């Protein structure tokens, strides 16, 4: 998976979210409900011609004053210009070019990244004519779209993915060592964890003015453990658009995640898991990354009750459902508690993710599990699973061969996944289960 990111920017109501949903097709979007001046910002993963990339819909604004509104939109555009690889600037043919469109266009013309001007709602030939007005904005790559019907999106996507090349595939190929990303919201303790692991020097290195890398890779080699740590803490911004810390932190987390095998998701124990944390968790799972959850600042929790950790963990797992087979470690970076255990957990997840179960063993165990709890009967015909094999994919995926592959429903799928997890230990790893015609 590449760390390639496409951002959709533009005024509210031009159709950004409609296009976003179309690019993602059935894949469910991760909605980040940052309240206040913005409406939901959405993050998702799109596929086109065998290429996978991140899509961000920068959202709309519901600010009541025009001033705030403009300021917010400029901020978003600037962040998108820094962080994305390709920008889709969307306008609405039915309103013509507005002042705000012209302002955003001025900003975007300075971008060194490819910018596509999308004139949306071009649903009929009359609007096709009207849309030519937008050529005056002066963008070489101008596309007329009807996001609602999808017309024009194919050509757009063909052009967008042509920018995904080997060198945007990140340097992750340079090493066979496990790559562990440290991610989480601002202030959860990411820098402190890094310092505890690799010392203060690392931060000095990243503090070199003009550092423009998005992530920092640090080779760790101590106590017989060797791996690459990927972090975004302390990465310097090129410009001074610091206000929207949350937006930054999510885009950064996505980039670090794309380069990693396993994500260490840090939470602040005093705050619990937030909607934003769940968004990031959901993305990691979709991307097939291994995950370890660190509940940091555990020292700040009053542990009067003996079952504090157990109860906390049970609640957390409920929030993480349906994928809750994840190591949860209660850490205090401040008091150096369980830091090493977290690393061990991440490395175990790394191994689980690469695990290949021999076919004979897999069938021995799983056919027994199937016998003891048979799939349901469909239209009078029993579903018979004859054989199972692990697919030669990079992350764990299993194919069950049966007579009626389309009729195996979610509950039975869950049963099989649980059996795989119970018998073979895929802790921290999203696994895929497929049914195929025998
Ligand atoms: P956003 O605020 O930019 O994300 O805009 P939305 O995606 O929420 O769309 C705003 C409105 O425009 C909705 O009512 C959409 O149904 C409508 N819309 C979006 N794309 C098209 C299109 O291609 N044609 C037409 N006619 N309407 C569209
Ligand atoms: P980052 O923004 O995620 O990199 O967070 P920092 O590492 O900068 O930490 C934010 C604040 O939380 C700092 O004041 C740290 O000293 C504090 N902090 C980090 N880890 C812990 C912890 O385990 N316990 C407590 N009490 N404070 C912590």
From TrEMBL:
Q: Name one GO molecular function term.
A: hydrolase activity
What UniProt keywords apply to this chain's record, in alphabetical order?
Answer: GTP-binding, Hydrolase, Nucleotide-binding, Repeat, Ribosome biogenesis
The answer to whether the entry has keyword Nucleotide-binding is: yes
The domain of life is Bacteria
Per UniProt, GTP 1 binds at 10-17, 57-61, 120-123
Gene3D superfamilies (alphabetical): 3.30.300.20, P-loop containing nucleotide triphosphate hydrolases
User: Record's CDD domains?
Assistant: EngA1 (cd01894), EngA2 (cd01895)
Q: Residue limits of the EngA-type G domain?
A: 4-168, 178-354
The role this protein plays is: GTPase that plays an essential role in the late steps of ribosome biogenesis.
Please identify the protein, giving its name as recorded: GTPase Der
The record lists the organism as Chitinophaga defluvii
């Amino acid at each position: 998976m590449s760390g390639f990111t496409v951002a959709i920017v533009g005024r509210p109501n031009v159709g950004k979210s409609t296009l976003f949903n179309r690019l993602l097709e059935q894949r469910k979007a991760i909605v980040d409900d940052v309240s206040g001046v913005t409406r939901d910002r959405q993050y998702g993963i799109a596929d086109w011609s065998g290429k996978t990339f991140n899509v961000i819909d920068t959202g709309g604004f519901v600010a009541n004053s025009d001033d705030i509104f403009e300021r917010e939109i400029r901020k978003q555009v600037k962040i998108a210009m820094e962080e994305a690889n390709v920008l889709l600037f969307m306008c609405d043919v039915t309103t013509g070019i507005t002042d705000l469109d012209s302002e955003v266009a001025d900003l975007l013309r300075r971008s060194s990244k490819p910018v596509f001007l999308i004139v949306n709602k071009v649903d009929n030939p009359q609007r096709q004519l009207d849309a030519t007005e937008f050529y005056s904005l002066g963008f070489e790559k101008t596309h007329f779209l009807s996001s609602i019907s999808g017309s024009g999106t194919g050509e757009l996507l063909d052009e967008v993915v042509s920018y995904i090349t080997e060198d945007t595939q990140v340097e992750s190929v340079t090493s066979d060592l496990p790559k562990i990303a440290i991610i989480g919201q601002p202030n959860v303790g990411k820098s402190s964890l890094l310092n505890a692991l690799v010392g203060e020097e690392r931060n000095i290195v990243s503090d070199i003015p003009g550092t423009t890398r998005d992530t920092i890779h640090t080779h760790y080699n101590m106590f017989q453990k060797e791996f690459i740590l990927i972090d975004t803490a302390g990465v310097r911004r090129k410009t001074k658009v610091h206000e929207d810390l949350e937006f930054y932190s999510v885009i950064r987390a996505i980039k670090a995640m794309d380069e990693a095998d396993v994500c260490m998701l840090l939470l602040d124990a005093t705050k619990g898991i937030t909607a934003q944390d769940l968004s990031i968790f959901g993305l990691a799972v979709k991307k097939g990354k291994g995950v370890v959850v660190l509940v940091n600042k555990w020292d700040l929790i009053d542990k009067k009750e003996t079952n504090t950790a157990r109860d906390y963990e049970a609640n957390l797992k409920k929030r993480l459902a349906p994928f809750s087979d994840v190591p949860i470690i209660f850490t205090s970076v401040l008091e150096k508690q369980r830091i090493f255990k977290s690393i061990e957990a991440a490395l175990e997840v790394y191994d689980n993710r690469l695990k290949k179960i021999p076919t004979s063993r897999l069938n021995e165990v799983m056919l027994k599990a199937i016998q003891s709890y048979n799939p349901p009967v469909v239209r009078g015909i029993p579903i018979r699973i004859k054989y199972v094999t692990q697919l030669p994919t990079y992350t764990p995926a299993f194919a069950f061969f049966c007579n009626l592959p389309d009729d195996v429903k979610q509950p039975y799928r869950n049963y099989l996944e649980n059996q795989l997890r119970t018998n073979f230990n895929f802790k921290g790893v999203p696994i895929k289960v497929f049914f195929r015609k025998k």
